[in-house]
User: Fold this.
Amino acid sequence: MKKILKALSSWQFIFPILLIVLSSILYEAHYQLFHDAHHIFIYFLGDLAFVPIEVLLVSIIIHRIMSQKEKSIKMNKLNMIIGAFFSEVGSDLIAKIAEYDENAEEITKKLVVTANWDDKNFIFTHSCLNTHKYEIIIKKEDIVILREFLVEKREFLLRLLENPNLLEHDAFTDLLWAVFHLIDELLHRKKISECTKEDLHHIENDIKRVYCLLTKEWLIYMKHLKKDYPYLFSLAIRTNPFDKNASAVIKNA
Assistant:
């Protein structure tokens, strides 16, 4: 009962009633001044006939335009977060994991993005990633190196998860969760030297999951840069973690 009374007393209930009462008063004033009900009904029906069009304009067209604009703003903010991820963690992580992929050469040569790429190149490469057979084989000493790298970046990754804009991008959120799962698996094994074959196989599968999501997200991000930020795209080409020549140029610069 209290909830009903509270709802009735809210402005969302009172305000429409006040508007209806005010409209009625104005119509009554018009009739008392001019005593012309005919024109009142003409204008009333004319205004009423426009209501569906007004609903169409406001509720559908304008609302959709505003929603698309808001979504575009959110996606730009999200792409900034994704850019920070690849600058701080993602690119280095790609380079490390690529060393463990026995079939890396098959796919890395297709991921050497150039300034001449168009949408067809990105679509074709994305389809190649979907069919690529990742074959992750990692040594115990490399697991230690990978664990140290990820643990060092853990605080940064946790801060990324706090950003509400991630709700707009399920694929990137899945990537972050996959990375966190890998970190937890590596931390759970205190002594890597004592890992069994089953443990190593499990870790390799976790790395494979991260690598699969990581390469796809990197390609999507590169497409975004090419379209909206050519100067950042130029730098991304020169620091491409899949291009050994690019990496060599940066290191020697």
